[in-house]
Amino acid sequence: MWRNKPNTGRRGLTALVALMLSLALVAAGCGNKQKDGGEASAGDEVIVTYKDGGQVTRAEFDKFIDVNLFFYKEYAQFKDDPAFQQDMMNQYLTFKVLASRADDKAKAEAEEKTTEQMDQLKSILDLQEGGFAGQLETAGLTEQDLKDFIGRTVQAFSAAEANVTDEQIQKAYDEQLANDPHAFVTATVSHILIGTSDPATGQETRSKEEALKRANEVKGKLEAGGDFAALAKDYSDDPGSRDEGGKYENVDITNWVPEFRDAAATLPLNTISDPVETAYGYHVMKVESRRTKTLDEVKPQLKAEAAEWSMYEFHNNELPSLIETNKLPKPQQTPPSEQTAPAADGETPPASTPPADGAPAEGSQ
């Protein structure tokens, strides 16, 4: 509800880390079986080698791509693109190498988490058309393929987390609070939205002037003693909270769009606000409680963020120096006249990624 767009920086690697709590890129085909007569099959071709005797075969990389396509069907259009294949190889190597560095404790934690993720995945896919087994059959995959995929990623992530120190976590906590005093605030907020557009179609439903007038009408009724929950059911255009009396309870306010977030962070408790304007319309709000999470409460979050960042740094800085040979096709250089102009901040514009929980992003409904 009224969330910011998710951070899509580091989107390729991050999307994989986020897939099942902490993603897993794994090589499922590791048999290297020989054809009759002793000749190696095409799948046995070594396409990448890296330091300390590491290698990737065509079969295991193809399996990795196939499992990615199972989770991210939109990748199919890029499957044969050299740039995409190189990017996928780097992601695959990141998780393969880091997983190999896991100690016994990290391996044990990863095995437990992998089992949990597989159980969740099965329960989700069994509710969809074809069910878990049917979808695997259609994709030409086995349950073990998915388990390997998830297991390798979780193991790599567990290994990265094991290297995060308490000092790093404390520093991250202090820095985030210094940059934003409300970084770890949770609040219970009731609100009534008078929207200006239809959440499903985006079509304008009322002008801003009409919405503001209606919002002030609601505010007047609340200040006159009207029941917030009843008025929310009658007036609110927020489908996520309307039937709950307009209430969001103990929510991290950092995910909300700036105007709503700032109001949740600063409004006096248990008072009816003036209408707060966002891209969605006008909100009449009441903040019922507000607190800042302690370091111990956010430690798992900060530890995971630090681990993800260390994996990203490995991907960008250490991995290139480990690769010795790479037989995958190289992307063609784009002539300067055909290159896409960079974003204003000098970074390549990230692809749009939906929020993990399906909540609307800032600027969309």
Q: Helices, strands, pairings?
A:
Blueprint: H1 11-18, E1 46-50, E2 54-57, H2 58-71, H3 82-100, H4 104-125, H5 131-139, H6 143-162, H7 166-179, E3 185-195, H8 208-223, H9 228-235, E4 247-252, H10 258-266, E5 276-278, E6 281-292, H11 295-322, E7 323-326
Antiparallel strand pairs: 1-2, 1-7, 3-4, 3-6, 5-6
Characterize the quaternary organization of these chains. Answer: single chain
Based on Cα principal axes, name the global outline.
elongated
Distance between the termini: 9 Å
Number of strands: 7
* Number of separate helices: 11
Strand content: 5-15%
Average predicted local confidence, pLDDT? 83
Largest sheet: 4 strands, antiparallel
Order of helices and strands: HEEHHHHHHEHHEHEEHE
Rounded Rg: 25 Å
Helix and strand content put the structural class at: alpha+beta
3D structure, described in words:
The protein has helices at residues 11-18, 58-71, 82-100, 104-125, 131-139, 143-162, 166-179, 208-223, 228-235, 258-266, 295-322; strands at residues 46-50, 54-57, 185-195, 247-252, 276-278, 281-292, 323-326. By secondary structure, the chain is of the alpha+beta class. The chain has two domains: 11-32 and 41-168 and 300-338, no CATH class; 185-292, Chitinase A, domain 3 (Roll), CATH 3.10.50.40. A four-stranded antiparallel sheet has the order 4-3-6-5. It has a three-stranded antiparallel sheet with strand order 2-1-7. A hairpin with a 3-residue loop joins β1 and β2 (54-57). It is elongated and about 75 Å long. It starts with 10 loop residues before the first helix and ends in a 39-residue tail after the last strand. Mean pLDDT is 83; it is low at 1-12, 18-40 and 336-365.
